[in-house]
Write a structure and sequence with these properties.
The structure is a single chain. The chain has 471 residues and is mostly helical. Among the domains are: 122 residues, Potassium Channel Kv1.1, Chain A (2-Layer Sandwich); 37 residues; 62 residues, no CATH class. Helices cover 45% and strands 9% of the residues. It is elongated. The structure holds a DNA duplex (15 and 15 nucleotides). This is Zinc finger and BTB domain containing 8A. It holds the Pfam family BTB.
DNA sequence: CTGGGGACGGGGCCC
DNA sequence: AGGGCCCCGTCCCCA
């Protein structure tokens, strides 16, 4: 059942009813007629397109020519709306548009959706379709792609991919797409794949305001969303189902987990305990799914952000999940981790995982290595000699002699008052040429290797119960 | 209640 | 392309 068509029909009926208040019994019949009329009209238009009848707009995608009706494109795509409204006023003049940011196959899917309301999504094309839809500012398609990705990544869903040739004919219609793109706020579509309302509102408004015409708009290159802004958080909430073990906890949840970790006495820290799970990425991450996403990235996310001083176009890479654009693909890949929840860098000491090696390093140095030559208690500067390393679970920090005496030696577990240099360089490679390599090895080694390293005493011993989680 | 500081996440950009 | 550095924003804890 076409819900949007019904809604539109109802509106049409109400409009009709306002002009004929005395005949309310005709509303239902009119609705039926309207639905049938819309359906037939769309079929007719699609036939005309296929027969190249009355097509007044040609779209060139990587050399392949598509013919369409500018009215249809105008009503379906914010990009075309912008393009056509800026073009010639002459309705007789054929409009041309050229794209290289996506493939002809992808545009075929988009065009078929525009003319039929059916979106032929698969795990192989969803990212590219989503990127193209983003380029063309077709929020309906974007949202269906998001939901498709979300459902594909959701391991709680049974493997239903066999019938993922997702025909959205029952949940989306041309009318919905066209109307929604032009609406200030998208209409909710009861009965359809539910879009996240908050995201829709904010994301849509943002995209409409800042992502106007990728070919012309300079502002697209200046897009900047705070990584922790509510928009991104909302987006994260959209993409990251807290119930979905594929993802790390998004935004606030993640921070609550961090807060819980901080509130937890360090000496009670034991990796693998339930509390740790709050701040860690579930290990059942479907790496192959994420790899699949990455693998499909290169040719699909390039957009022309703005022009150089010499009028040469600057290529930027657009995130398929949000409006963020970056200069380099590597940066996009890094950025995507905030959407996918991928955290490939686990701290072997506390099992906390990070999106970047440098974050892991910073974490390790500050939390587990006591690299800061500052007394934890009085904040005074200490040296390697005067600042004794205090162990508190997996945490280490330095305290000056005075503070240690003030607290009492018996009350704090000192790493080595005598600064025993027998502490494993693997862990505390403060000095020496091997520091970098050894540290990296320590952080990046497999846990099996770590377990074999008997020299890595207290910290490493605390991670040996997480093997099953790391697979 | 508030300000300071720590930890962390993310973006830009250089090497 | 990856690694790394710098910077900034956010959240949280604590005095």
């Amino acid at each position: 059942m076409d819900v949007e068509a019904d809604a539109g029909a109802s509106r049409a009926c109400r409009a009709a009813g306002e002009s004929s208040h005395q005949q309310p019994q005709r509303w239902f019949n009119t609705a039926d007629i309207t639905v049938a009329h819309q359906s037939n009209l769309l079929k007719q238009l699609n036939q005309q397109r296929r027969q190249e009848l009355f097509c007044d707009c040609s779209v060139l995608v990587e050399g392949q020519l598509f013919l369409a009706h500018r009215n249809i494109l105008f009503a379906s795509s914010g990009y075309f709306r912008m393009l056509l409204s800026q073009g010639s006023d002459s309705s007789l003049e054929t409009v041309n548009a050229t794209f290289d940011a996506f493939s002809p196959e992808t545009f075929t899917i988009i065009l078929d959706f525009i003319y039929s309301g059916q979106l032929d999504l698969s795990s192989h094309n969803v990212i590219e379709v989503m990127s193209a839809a983003s380029y063309l500012q077709m929020n309906t398609v974007i949202n269906y792609c998001k939901n498709f990705i979300k459902s594909s990544l959701d391991i709680s869903v049974k493997e239903e991919d066999s019938d993922r040739g997702l025909s959205l004919s029952e949940t989306c219609s041309f009318a919905s797409g066209a109307g929604e793109e032009s609406a200030e706020q998208p209409q909710p579509r009861p009965g359809s794949v539910s879009p996240p309302p908050a995201l829709w509102t904010r994301d849509n408004s943002r995209s409409q305001s800042s992502f106007k015409d990728p070919e012309r708009d300079v502002s697209v290159s200046t897009l900047k969303t705070s990584p922790n802004s509510p928009e991104i958080s909302a987006e994260g909430d959209d993409l990251q189902d807290p119930q979905d073990p594929l993802y790390t906890l998004p935004g606030s949840e993640r921070r609550r987990g961090r807060a819980a970790a901080k509130r937890r006495p360090s000496n009670s820290t034991r990796p693998g305990q339930q509390e740790d799970q709050d701040i860690q990425e579930p290990r059942s991450l479907k790496v192959e799914k994420i790899d699949e996403l990455y693998a499909s990235l290169p040719q699909i996310v390039g957009v022309i952000g703005h022009y150089n001083k010499d009028s040469s176009p600057v290529m930027r890479f657009k995130c398929p999940f949000c409006t963020h654009t970056v200069k380099r693909k590597a940066d996009l890949k890094r950025h995507l981790r905030c959407h996918t929840g991928e955290r490939p860098y686990p701290c072997q000491a506390c099992n906390k995982r990070f999106t970047r090696l440098e974050h892991l390093r910073n974490h390790f140095e500050t939390i587990h290595q006591a690299r800061k030559l500052v007394c934890r208690k009085c904040k005074c500067q200490v040296t390697e000699e005067t600042g004794h390393v205090v162990c508190e679970g997996t945490r280490r920090y330095r305290m000056c002699t005075a503070c240690i005496q003030e607290v009492g030696c018996d009350d704090i577990p000192l790493e080595s008052l005598g600064e025993s240099k027998e502490e494993p360089a693997l862990l505390l490679g403060v000095d020496g040429e091997e520091e970098g390599d050894s540290k990296r090895n320590w952080m990046m080694n497999d846990e099996d290797e770590l377990a074999e390293d008997s020299g890595a005493d207290l910290i490493i011993q605390q991670v040996d119960d997480s093997d099953e989680e790391l697979q």
